[in-house]
Write a structure and sequence with these properties.
By secondary structure, the chain is mainly α. The chain contains 18 helices and no strands.
Length: about 500
């Protein structure tokens, strides 16, 4: 982004605040609490909804490994999400508004859960496509909703908090709820699938030891072409009982229905805070906003954010597909995927809770650099580590990954809102677009590349992304320094 564009963005942000601030007198004395209530209900609904989605998706590569059905299903989700992010968010949000876009998008996820009752290519792939087409509007609506109400909250006189900080804080509060979905989803999954299987699990671990999991699992794992051969050599890959899988699916389907009802009944329409707001697609045709969304890719900042955004998609896909299969399922058993991934959810939630405070204390740039170094060290460790049958080792590894993922999600999401005020739909649409692109690449290569190769690839993408992000910080520093110098010169002249 050049100086002219930056000035334009700052001007738009000020106009938004002024418009919302003009409505301050219309707000009641407890409007701040009402805004927090909206965030809490929205976050809780996302938690319930993604309890089902994550709990189901984490099992796909292991439960539906015949013909790599699980991996291809996840690839179809994120492949359609790419198209969804390009064509749907602006139009759907304009037609339905942010609140009802979220409700309708939640419903679009439900066929994916229902298809687990009869998992075939002709049921799971179309259902996965529906998830992707619902995902683009869903996440764009969520990001826009949080950004707008953060601006409204900052305009309430008694709070007097900068909108930039509130955006980070509100994203952090939201992601505390959202990341708990990993905890609940995996806790339910582990409880249902492992019920009554203590003896069988112990036998599986013994069998796994006879096939030397330290040499065949972890970074050395390569997905076999013959599923039956894999089962014969390592009983940890035996598919759980169908009755248990169906019970789990029924629970998750109920979760998604409840989430839709919560948003429909408990969340305020964004019109309350956005009725006269400029930007965000107000008064602009869907086709025009589509053009603006695509033009966003011409923005220097947006281009520099693409690698780190793709990295988020890549690393999340790795945890969902490759870590669960090559580390947990291979070393412990399919039923223990939920057990290990609980740690991921807890660490994600913890990171979401503390990231805003730490960022306020040390700054955004140091936070990102420390996270990059931490994540790099973790990847190197995973490349060298020899898997064992110690349950806690898998939990520690995935918890460390969850800490890093939580920071990446909050910081890059919030940065998209901070850098492009008034153009949130275009910015967040691009975020989801390139995040999904990274996920599709990882899912598509999952059946053919070794885990070692994928870990090295993830490390390279992260390094490139960190360099791109650092470039943005340097550019911003120079612009602010230049602006400060000009103000100083003007004061000197006046004296």
């Amino acid at each position: 982004m050049d100086n002219g564009n930056l000035a334009e963005g700052e001007s738009n942000g000020s106009a938004v605040t002024a418009v919302v601030a003009g409505k301050d007198a219309e707000f009641g004395p407890r409007e701040g609490y009402r805004i927090i209530k909206n965030i809490a209900i929205l976050g809780f609904a996302f938690m319930i909804h993604f309890t089902a989605f994550h709990g189901t998706s984490n099992l796909q590569s292991s439960v539906h490994s015949d013909g790599s059905l699980g991996a291809f299903t996840l690839a179809s989700i994120y492949g359609s999400l790419i198209l969804s992010n390009i064509f749907l968010p602006v139009m759907v949000i304009r037609w339905l508004g942010c609140k009802w876009t979220i409700v309708v998008s939640f419903v679009a996820y439900m066929p994916y859960i229902a298809a687990q009752f009869y998992p075939r290519f002709y049921t799971l792939i179309p259902a996965g496509l529906a998830v992707g087409f619902g995902g683009g509007p869903l996440w764009c609506a969520k990001c826009t909703y949080l950004s707008v109400i953060a601006e409204a909250f900052s305009s309430i006189k008694k709070h007097k908090v900068k909108a930039d900080y509130l955006i980070v804080k509100f994203f952090g509060l939201f992601f505390v709820f959202y990341q708990l979905a990993q905890v609940l989803g995996n806790l339910i999954s582990f409880s249902v699938l492992s019920y009554g299987d203590e003896i069988e699990v112990a036998q599986n671990v013994t069998t796994a030891n006879t096939v030397n999991i330290s040499e065949t699992c972890g970074a050395n794992y390569v997905a076999p072409v013959d599923r039956q051969l894999q089962n014969d050599s390592n009983s940890n890959f035996h598919r759980p009982d169908t009755a248990k899988l169906n019970a789990l699916t029924g629970i998750f389907l109920g979760c998604m229905a409840l989430a839709s009802i919560l948003v429909a009944v408990g969340v305020d329409s964004l019109k309350r805070y956005n009725s006269t707001r400029t930007g965000s697609g107000s008064g602009i045709s869907g086709v025009r906003m589509l053009v603006i969304t695509m033009k966003q890719l011409g923005n220097k900042y947006q281009i520099l954010l693409l690698p780190i955004t793709m990295f988020i998609g890549v690393e999340q896909a790795f945890i969902a597909v490759d870590f669960t299969a090559s580390f947990v399922a291979c070393g412990l058993g399919i039923s223990y995927i939920g057990y290990a991934m609980i740690s991921f959810g807890l660490a994600n939630a913890f990171a979401a809770a503390v990231t805003p405070s730490i960022t306020k204390a040390i700054g955004r740039f140091p936070m990102i650099i420390v996270t990059a170094i931490f994540h790099l060290a973790l990847i190197v460790f995973m490349l060298l580590w020899k898997p064992t049958d110690d349950y806690y080792a898998y939990s520690i590894i995935v918890a460390c990954w969850g800490l890093a993922d939580g920071v990446w999600l909050i910081q890059i999401n919030a940065l998209s809102g901070i850098l492009f005020p008034g153009n949130e739909e275009a910015a967040f649409s691009n975020f989801r677009l390139w995040e999904a692109t990274g996920s599709v690449i990882m899912y598509a290569t999952s059946p053919v590349l070794s885990t070692f190769t994928k870990l090295v690839g993830i490390m390279c993408v992260m390094l490139v992304g960190t360099v791109g992000y650092t470039t943005i910080e340097v550019m911003e520093y120079r612009i602010k320094k230049s602006a400060a110098g000009k103000r100083f010169e003007m004061i000197q002249q006046q004296n």
